[in-house]
Amino acid sequence: MYNIKDYKNILIQIRMVCLSPERDTQGSESFYQPKMAFMILFLLLCLSFILNTTNAQPRNSIIRPGSSLSPNSNSHWLSESGQFAFGFYRYGNGFSVGIWFEKIQQKTVVWTANRDDPPFSSDVTLLLSTKGRLIVQPKQGQEILIASASQLASSASMLDSGNFVLFNSSSAIIWQTFDFPTDTILPGQHLLPGHSLVSNASETNHTRGKFLLVMQTDGNLVQYPVDSIELEAAYWNTKTYGAGDNVTLNLDSNGTLYLLNATALLVQNITEKASVSGKPIYRATIDADGIFRLYSRSFNQFDNWSIQWSSSENKCDPKGFCGVNSYCTLMDRDPVCQCPPGFDFIDQGQKDLGCHKNYNVDACTGKSEQMFDFDELISVSWEVDAYSSLSSIPKDACREECFRDCNCEAALYQIESQLCKKLKLPLRFGKRELSGQVITLLKIGAALDRGGERKQKELRVDVLIIIISCLTLAFLVVVCCSVLVYRHRNVRKKGISNLDSNGLVEDVTLRSFTYEELKHATNNFTDNIGKGAFGTVFRGVISNGSRIVAIKRLDKVVAEGEREFNNEMKTIGNTHHKNLVQLLGYCHEGSNMLLVYEYMRNGSLADFLFGSRLKTDWEGRIAITLNIARGILYLHEECETQIIHCDIKPENILMDEKGCAKIADFGLAKLLMPNQTKTYTGIRGTRGHVAPEWWHQNSPITVKADVYSFGIMLLEIICCRRSLDMMFQTMKQYL
Ligand SMILES: *[C@@H]1O[C@H](CO)[C@@H](O)[C@H](O)[C@H]1NC(C)=O
Ligand SMILES: *[C@@H]1O[C@H](CO)[C@@H](O)[C@H](O)[C@H]1NC(C)=O
Ligand SMILES: *[C@@H]1O[C@H](CO)[C@@H](O)[C@H](O)[C@H]1NC(C)=O
Ligand SMILES: *[C@@H]1O[C@H](CO)[C@@H](O)[C@H](O)[C@H]1NC(C)=O
Ligand SMILES: *[C@@H]1O[C@H](CO)[C@@H](O)[C@H](O)[C@H]1NC(C)=O
Ligand SMILES: *[C@@H]1O[C@H](CO)[C@@H](O)[C@H](O)[C@H]1NC(C)=O
Ligand SMILES: *[C@@H]1O[C@H](CO)[C@@H](O)[C@H](O)[C@H]1NC(C)=O
Ligand SMILES: *[C@@H]1O[C@H](CO)[C@@H](O)[C@H](O)[C@H]1NC(C)=O
Ligand SMILES: *[C@@H]1O[C@H](CO)[C@@H](O)[C@H](O)[C@H]1NC(C)=O
Ligand SMILES: *[C@@H]1O[C@H](CO)[C@@H](O)[C@H](O)[C@H]1NC(C)=O
Ligand SMILES: *[C@@H]1O[C@H](CO)[C@@H](O)[C@H](O)[C@H]1NC(C)=O
Ligand SMILES: *[C@@H]1O[C@H](CO)[C@@H](O)[C@H](O)[C@H]1NC(C)=O
Fold first, then answer.
1. Among 246, 258, 265, which residue has the most ligand 4 atoms within 8 Å of its CB, making it the best to mutate?
2. Closest CA to 153 of 126, 171, 180, 178
3. Which residues cross the membrane (predicted)?
């Protein structure tokens, strides 16, 4: 088929031939040439018009009894304009019957018959039987009903609206797919009171999935997880409760989604008229991820659907995305299910099934209350069905309350309101929240069996031996390392100049980010992964989504000039050691100070030691200790500017995927406390890890402070308990 452009080309060519000088010399003949050319053109145009109209000729859209389709012949019944098709489409390793957009390349199914049935094999026939029933007839066996109309059909039609209808002999509609929507409504379609849309199980599997959008008979349009249609589980609604008992959801051809009541009066516009140029087509679908979206696209067959509106921006909003005892968190804007500490996935392969406790003790029958420990999960909210709640108590008291109550399996503590809610498992609808205002305290199995007195004595002797041997070992290692490192120093210095040519230069230089960049990288600071002494840590993505990083927002920095900040960044940026968490960049704009670090997937040493038990064996812990010792040695002895950490503790040791320990938060002490190299008061650091002389006096801080903290941490690593643990009786609180 030609289009206008082709005709223009033809015209130009013809004219060129006609008006060329040689022809011109032939006199009068040439005078008629252009006329002839136009006549040819006219004929061509007429021909194309005829062809065009025959092409758009109604492909007889009335389907008579006896008509049939089979999967293999790739035949289907088209609507008048050819926009929609009804028939077999490929699904799994077979075929399903449904309706799809025929003119567009991206296969978009809007309706499926018997969606929960397995696919058909290729030897079946779809038939409008002479008896007036729409069925699928297998080679042998029972026929399957596609449309359950109350009367017999005398014809059927695929309408241009995307509605497939059956008519009786007086041409009244007796059955239509618009009355039985699956997950999509089209312009002109209504969702009637009591009816619902159910999401696909996945993007490629159209069996009934996990989420529901229901037009309630109370006038409210609400989204629920399919298996808990109850008030607490609703995650989106139009707040039109009480708008009448006959409210319908409508979509019109201008892309407006709205609710109408029985007298056809507007109850609410859910979306305004979409401002898309051209004449776009629309559909509204509850997607497999539970979000209800309005899509538009142009008629261009290579175009893609674009989202006009969605019921929620946060993919963790749909409740029930993650199973029981697990919580949803955004990673790179995609939702991911995670288990709290002390819990494991029920099925590693299907993380959305939920988590279960990785120990099994019934607290109310067990004898010793000391079999339990607590772990904390910050800023994760759950559906709270508390059996008891206490107000205006501090966090430790909340923990104590739960600890003493054998029925309490977890507690939710709201920092601002000082509210403590005692909970039982399973926990539902976990979701990481923006604000760090809520802490989940989880009762978990203790790291060590602290059964009887005698056992504990034995343990102490053991511990003493282990400590002594370990200290000796560490000392030897430190000495050996210093000697080795000292020797190789010169060699290494020479090596550095080669780095540039090895393409490592990007890793060596610090990058300065703008605040906007980091805001974008962290999805507007939504995905926070922890809170440290300096401020909040967020997960972010840089380099166009190719690298996951941890972004630390410094909140408590004593305001210092830009120069100091930049100097400090330079010092930290100049450190390169495999046992230090690498600083990748920073941002300093006004009062916003942010640091961008490499992302450490496997959490902190504290999680390893005090989290769910039996994660680390003795060998592993020795390796970790040596790694930390190497890192500290480097900070103290090897890097250009000596760095005193001031806060060595398990929380500040992070683990990478390979189990290698790395020191975090180094070099920040100066930012917190100005003039710190000589003297300062009010030492930062953590109680229990700081040497007593620094607690009580204003002595100048030296590397020895870190050595003391390292020693305390060594004890913690050996014993797998905190040096100061309020969970024990007074005498045993200090390790
Ligand atoms: C779709 O998912 C269901 C279970 O959710 C499964 O039984 C079925 O085999 C899946 N179908 C395809 C084609 O993957
Ligand atoms: C066709 O259906 C309409 C509506 O259900 C009904 O009023 C009419 O009588 C039917 N016609 C025949 C011939 O059954
Ligand atoms: C639902 O599943 C079908 C597979 O039969 C697929 O073609 C369709 O795109 C899916 N719909 C959504 C919204 O994912
Ligand atoms: C429909 O809505 C209009 C305006 O909101 C209201 O006046 C009317 O009573 C409603 N009709 C029904 C049947 O509820
Ligand atoms: C869509 O918008 C056009 C122009 O604004 C208007 O004429 C038409 O009536 C609208 N159609 C519907 C169904 O609201
Ligand atoms: C609901 O309203 C529609 C028209 O908007 C009407 O056809 C239908 O009969 C009503 N149903 C009930 C139960 O009132
Ligand atoms: C609802 O949307 C329609 C179409 O976009 C518009 O004409 C109407 O003014 C809107 N009504 C309200 C109350 O916003
Ligand atoms: C539509 O999506 C496909 C793959 O998802 C992509 O290759 C294509 O470029 C897109 N087309 C447009 C017009 O964006
Ligand atoms: C980011 O958060 C700020 C305030 O918290 C808000 O004003 C802004 O609209 C948000 N931006 C986006 C893109 O979510
Ligand atoms: C990131 O993507 C944008 C456009 O998508 C491109 O202009 C830019 O160069 C990319 N940046 C990097 C570092 O790849
Ligand atoms: C890191 O964490 C992942 C998942 O949490 C775990 O599978 C892996 O074994 C851990 N790696 C090490 C070295 O502990
Ligand atoms: C830090 O030291 C400088 C000069 O040594 C002094 O001017 C400044 O006041 C000190 N800052 C604080 C907070 O002590």
1. 265
2. 171
3. 463-486
